[in-house]
Structure formats: C-alpha cells, structure tokens
Design brief:
Elements (H helix, E strand, L loop, with lengths): L24 H22 L1 H4 L1 H8 L3 H29 L1 H21 L3 H12 L2 H14 L5 H9 L4 H16 L9 H14 L22 H12 L6 H28 L3 H28 L5 H16 L4 E7 L2 E7 L3 H29 L4 H30 L4 H22 L7
Helix pairs in contact: 1-7, 1-8, 1-9, 1-10, 4-5, 4-6, 4-7, 4-16, 5-6, 5-7, 5-10, 7-8, 7-16, 8-13, 8-15, 9-13, 12-13, 12-15, 12-16, 12-17, 13-15, 14-15, 14-17, 16-17
Organism: Halomonas daqiaonensis
GO molecular function: nitrate transmembrane transporter activity
Protein name: MFS transporter, NNP family, nitrate/nitrite transporter
Length: 441
C-alpha cells in the first residue's frame, strides 16, 4: 500500500506501539465516551426536520417534494464536508475538528427557531449538515486513540451514536406539544455546548509536537498543494479504497434516510400521531446502534469478510417483505369468489424493521473494523470516503421516496428502491470478488 507524502504519512494502525508513546488509559476512556456523545448530538440535530415535519409542512405549506428536499439538505452538506474534515482531522487533530464542527452547528440551531421562510430553513439545514465534519473527525479520532485490541468495539460504540436520532424521537414531540415547535431546536444548544466543553477540557489529540529545525536548509521541503491534490486523486483512483466503502455507504445511507422518513411514513400509513409515530420509530434506531456494537466486537475476534454477504442477503429479504404494500386479491374458485386482503400490522412491520436494523448495524460495525484493519494508515481517507458516499446516498433517498410514492401511488416505494439499490451493491461485491482476493499486507 502506498504511503502519504510528508505530513500525510502516518504509521499503520496495526503496527506495534512503544510503551512510552502509548496513550494512557484515561485517554481511551475519554475517546470512547465523549466521541459517541458528539456523534449522537449531530444525529439528533439532523432529525429535527423529520420529527417536526407536521408543524413545518403546515406552517410553510410544503408539498412532499419540498419537504423531502428539506430533509436531504443536512445529508448533502454532510456528505460534502466528510472527506475534507477527515483529512483535516488527520493533520490537525480530531478533537480540534470535532470541537469546531460542534460549535458551528449552534448558530444554525438558533436560526431554525427564528426562521420563517423556506429558503431560510434550507440554508439552516445545510449549516446543520456541516456537523458531519464532527462525525468524520470523530471516526479518525477513535481509530487513532481508541484501545488497539478492541478497535472494532470502540468503533462500534462510536457508530452507536446513531441512536441520537432516538433522542429526537423521545424529546422533540413532548417539547413541541408543551411549548411550541420553535423551542425544540434550542433544546439541543445546551447539550452541544456541554459536550464541546468536555472535549475541550478532558480530551486531547494525542499528537506529539514536531520540532522543526531552525535552519531553513535543514528543514525538509513540503509538497506543494498541487502535488498533494494530485496524490489524493491518485489514491482515490485505487479500487481498493472503494470496495468496502461502497457497501458501508449503503448501510449508513439507508439508516439515515429511514430514520428521517419513518415518523412521517408511520403517521401516513397507520394514522398515528406525530408523538406516537416517533416513539414507534425508536426501536429501529436502538436496533441499529446495538448492531454496531455487536458487529464491531465480532470483527475484533476474527476476520468477518464473509459476514457482509450474509448480512446483505438477510437485509435483502427484509426489504423484499417490507416492500409489499397493502393489497387485495380476488380468486374465482370452484365454489365462488375468494377475496384475500393483506396489510402488514404495525407490530409485524416494526418487527421486520428491528431485525433489519440489527443486521444493518452489524454490517456497519464490522465493515468499519475491516476498513480500519486494511487501511490503518489511511483511515481518514477511506473512512471519510465511506461517510461521503453514505451521505450522498442518504441525501438522494428522501426525494426518491416521495417521488416514487407519488408516481407509483405505493406507500412502500422507498423500500422497493432500497431493495434495488442493495441488489446493485451486491453485484458490485460479486464483481469485486471476481477480481480476486485482496493481498494481505
């Protein structure tokens, strides 16, 4: 594997670490505890529009496509910010980038509580999406400073921050009902500032200061910006960086899109109130978070490369079943007409979602551990690429869900699209397998 030039060079993650330079135990503890909190808050902020959808659509007189575009804005900005922020975290420290991105979301949370026009909400959503820099930087931070023996488990705990969507499901409907929806965005200002303060006080980047020689002639020449950009483009042209990132992006993007879409879907399909729909959506997010921890822990024990095939096949079956809309069928029998009617009950629908959520979480946790294992010295690049692809996929899904439902008139069109997308993803996996197994480092 090629190494980064000059300042981009990092030691492989699996390389032995000298005892004197090994991070102290408290550092790993701080990393594992604070980073998922930051992740959870960013996800909670992203689900603001989804949980407050009824009020926003009524106040702004939004149609389905307009509201879907509003849901997609944080994902789009987050996708564009992920890779650059991951690379910045590698050069300047994950804690600094996480701290900056968390503080950056605060004015946009305040803006949402004061906005009155659709364009304002769109721009505020783009601002919230910049918080994805905290996700990408946190990934680099945990991979670098987390406990080496339990890298998969620590990455799984970090990914379990996706359960922050459940925080919105629990709190926002109550706050909106009691005090009005405009107070709901302000609810997150204090936790964001608190976690930022904890990162500032108790965390560190673990960087060893580099003492540069005073003599300019003895100082090594740094590559120019053009050289660094060309090198980055060359690295991104390597298929080995994409092979796991593409599969991860499906699970990540599908979860984010479903977390945003589920409250509205349950309200429309089962006639639930906003508060009830948000509560019924909570088990799905908890299942994905638990699956992340399980998948990461399993990947620590053995090389679960084949696990992605089994997980993808299981999720494919779940999506196939979830794609069935309510329907009636009449059969001309010998003794008269038979009428069959199918409509998935709420408990059956949620049971499938929870089972699929556990599998999706296991896929994300195990794949991120494999990325960490195969690309220890390029975790920022490959992990940032995976989050970028996942964010773009998540931004595409809300409009596709709405347009598919309107054009086909089928409420489960979103699951049909996810089914087709996973089939394409599995074909890419087959093509990758046909290229031959990757040579171990």
């Amino acid at each position: 594997m090629s190494r980064d030039p000059d300042s981009l060079t990092n030691a492989p993650r699996d390389a032995p670490v000298d005892d004197e330079s090994a991070p102290p135990g408290y550092r790993s503890l701080v990393v594992v505890l604070l980073s998922p909190l930051a992740f959870a808050l960013v996800f909670a902020c992203w689900t603001l529009f989804a949980v407050l959808g009824v009020e926003l659509r009524r106040e702004l007189a939004l149609g389905g496509v307009g509201f879907a575009a509003l849901l997609a804005m944080p994902m789009l900005a987050g996708a564009l910010a992920s890779l650059p922020m991951a690379l910045l975290a590698r050069q300047h420290g994950g804690r600094r980038v996480m701290l900056g991105c968390l503080l950056l979301t605060c004015p946009f949370l305040w803006w949402i509580s004061r906005a009155h026009h659709y364009l304002e909400f769109l721009l505020a959503g783009l601002g919230l999406g910049l918080g994805a820099g905290s996700l990408a930087a946190g990934l680099v931070y945990v991979a670098k400073l987390g406990p080496p023996r339990h890298a998969g488990l620590s990455l799984g705990f970090y990914g379990a921050g996706m359960m922050g969507a459940g925080l919105s499901y629990l709190l926002l409907p109550l706050v909106s009902q009691a005090y009005g929806w405009r107070l709901a965005p302000l609810l997150y200002l204090l936790p964001v500032l608190l976690v930022a303060a904890l990162l500032w006080l108790f965390a560190d980047d673990g960087d060893v200061p580099v003492v540069e020689p005073e003599d300019d002639e003895a100082r090594p020449a740094r590559p120019s910006s053009r050289v660094r950009v060309l090198y980055l483009a060359t690295r991104l042209a390597d298929w080995q960086l994409w092979r796991l990132a593409i599969t991860y992006s499906f699970f990540f993007g599908a979860f984010v899109a479903l977390a945003l879409w589920l409250p509205g879907h349950l309200t429309a399909r089962y006639g639930l109130s906003l508060q009830a729909a948000a509560l019924w959506s909570l088990p799905f997010t908890l299942a994905v978070g638990a699956g992340q921890v399980i998948g990461g822990a399993l990947a620590d024990r053995r090389d679960f490369r084949s696990l992605r095939w089994w997980i993808s096949a299981f999720v494919l079956v779940c999506l196939f079943l979830l794609s069935y809309p309510p329907f009636s069928m009449r059969i001309e029998g010998m003794h008269g007409e038979l009428t069959l009617h199918y409509a998935a009950p709420l408990w059956g629908f949620l049971g499938l979602l929870v089972a699929m959520g556990v599998a999706m979480g296991m896929g994300q946790g195990s794949l991120m551990r494999l990325i960490h294992r195969d690309h220890g010295d390029g975790m920022a690049l490959v992990g940032g690429l995976a989050l970028t692809l996942g964010g773009l996929f998540a931004a595409l899904l809300p409009p596709v869900f709405v347009l598919g439902g309107e054009w086909l008139g089928v409420p489960t069109a979103g699951f049909m699209f996810l089914y087709a997308a996973l089939v394409v993803c599995m074909l890419v996996m087959v093509a990758d397998h046909a290229r031959g197994p990757r040579r171990e480092r």
